Amino acid sequence: MKVLFVFGTRPEGIKMAPIIKEIQKRDKIESYTCVTGQHREMLDQVLEIFDIVPDYDLNIFKKGQSLTEVTTKTLLGLEKVLDELKPDILLVQGDTTTVFAAALAAFYKKIKVGHVEAGLRSGNIYSPYPEEANRKLTGIVTNFHFAPTIANKNNLLREGYDEDSIYITGNTVIDALKYSVKEKYEFGNEILDNIDYNKDVILLTSHRRENWGEPMENIFSAVKRVVEERENVEIIFPVHLNPIVREIANKYFSDLDRVHLIEPLSYLPFSNLMNKVKFVITDSGGVQEEAPSLGKPVLVVRNETERMEGIEAKTAKLIGTEYSDVYNNIISLLDDKKLYDEMAKAINPYGDGNAAKKIVDIIEKIH
């Protein structure tokens, strides 16, 4: 059996890596990897960390590329790969434009599609954008839905998918953390290695398109006020490469000594940084899954999330993007020890770190 992994961004690479590593242990499966390069630098870092050498690299990245360009370049590039390789199953992960385009390319060739992290839904087609549409469109041409949680499975059942095609596996992001987090990790970064993590150190990440503009201004303004009022608070903000995000970040934080604007971190240092901070403020999807497994509460600065399991388990709290809501929730988590401990000790609903093995076992069985 031939299995082709296709991914194009850092988050996909991180979550695919444990499956690639697991499948390489199996004698009955030939596995191949194709990267689209939707992201370039950040994706290459993940490939290096997990020692993955792609068999195919479409290298589609272009500065300022549109969603249309990503889609069409992926379709055209993958057509050649699929004609040459003729895989039995194409595996995609998540909800990027690479995922949708790769699944569509496989469908056009009548190749079966396995969707890792299937069934996430926010309920708003434009939030997150374009991810909510990508994951729903991918589901339509998917043969094997690998859903992290029961809630994800139920989302798919409500949309009419056959229960026999849905498998609950947990999320491979927890598997990936096993490889990466070390207690005595050294960053090799002057700022990160010299911060006193006994203080109230908060990790901030924000980059989503739907937060560009006023929502992001609200978030950063609230964080700035907290820093100005609390001498024990330090913020570490790995600033996304997008110039819109960078401009707003500099507007609010460039003159604050205790807000550390740093370059984006590769997976290893980012995972280990999560392990050291007090809590996380983020609009990222993956961080909502990762941080709780390290005992770190998460404040989600979004109006909707497709990861409601964490909200319901109280590992994360959905706080929106209004200035007062962001400010008040940060202060509450800093001051209310009972609230903090409740979130930090809640059980992570996203699995036990064995998702990759479950997925590969299923692939072996269903072929």
From TrEMBL:
GO terms for molecular function: UDP-N-acetylglucosamine 2-epimerase activity. It comes from the Bacteria. Its EC number is 5.1.3.14. Keywords: Isomerase. PANTHER family: UDP-N-ACETYLGLUCOSAMINE 2-EPIMERASE. Signal peptide: none annotated. Belongs to the UDP-N-acetylglucosamine 2-epimerase family. This is UDP-N-acetylglucosamine 2-epimerase (non-hydrolyzing). The keyword Isomerase applies. It comes from Peptoniphilus ovalis. Residues 21-364 form the UDP-N-acetylglucosamine 2-epimerase domain. The gene is wecB.
